[in-house]
Design goal:
The chain is an alpha/beta fold. 41% of the residues lie in helices and 18% in strands. The chain has 5 helices and 4 strands, in the order H-H-H-E-H-E-H-E-E. It has a 4-stranded parallel β-sheet with strand order 3-2-1-4, covered by helices on one side. Helix 4 links the parallel strand 1 and strand 2. The longest helix has 14 residues. It is globular and about 40 Å long.
């Protein structure tokens, strides 16, 4: 089984695993430690977003943040979109399929924070 196929299969149960192993709670804790004010207007890049764990934590913590997120796996990206839609934040997040090793469609210094 190749890695792409593995992550496509894993996308279905990935979020449940994040909850069970406490990683979602840890991600929220890490985001709370960021040196920004709740009211700051932030532009964030989530490179390798998976199912959107950190994107969701950023959107929850910072109501004025916008996130551009991408992942190589289309099934992970679809799960991220679904999770973001559930929170009503699709207007604040863009999630695309992209390979981090390819040319990225972003200008230099266009983000306040980059998460990988």
């Amino acid at each position: 089984m190749n890695q792409q196929h593995f992550y496509s299969q894993a996308a279905r149960w990935y979020d449940l695993n994040l909850d069970l192993n406490g990683y979602r709670r840890a991600a929220r804790y890490i985001v709370r430690q960021l040196p920004f004010m709740d009211s700051d207007v932030l532009k964030v890049l989530d490179a390798g977003c998976g199912t959107g764990l950190y994107t969701l934590a950023i959107l929850e913590r910072f109501p004025n943040a916008c996130v551009d997120a991408f992942d190589l796996n289309p099934d992970m990206v679809e799960q991220a979109r679904k999770q973001i839609a559930k929170t009503g934040n699709l207007d604040r997040a863009s999630v695309i399929v992209k390979d981090i090793t390819s040319d990225l469609p972003y200008s230099p210094r266009s983000f306040d924070l980059v998460i990988t």
